[in-house]
Amino acid sequence: MKLNVFLNYGGNCEAALRFYEAHLGGRIVMLMRRAEQPEQPITWPGWEHSIQYAIMDIGETQVMASDVPPAQFQPMRSV
Q1: Does an H or E element contain 20, and which?
Q2: Higher pLDDT, 70 or 66
Q3: I need a labelling partner for 75 at 20 to 30 A (CA). Which of 6, 9, 13, 49 fits?
Q4: Residue 28: which domain range?
């Protein structure tokens, strides 16, 4: 069975993925900032360089991730 996970971060998505890359042997496959997305309808002021969408491979697991605005972000509550 292959597990695909989507994680939301409150503004530190890239830092987290760089950490996983350095310490867990992950490999960032794709990293798109909000400012890079074609025809982005709206972006929050100051969030132009936040991560819209990212993909990382860690072994057989694929992790997808993005930053969400602080008002919508909720820390992990259960696993």
Answers
A1: helix 13-24
A2: 66
A3: 49
A4: 4-59
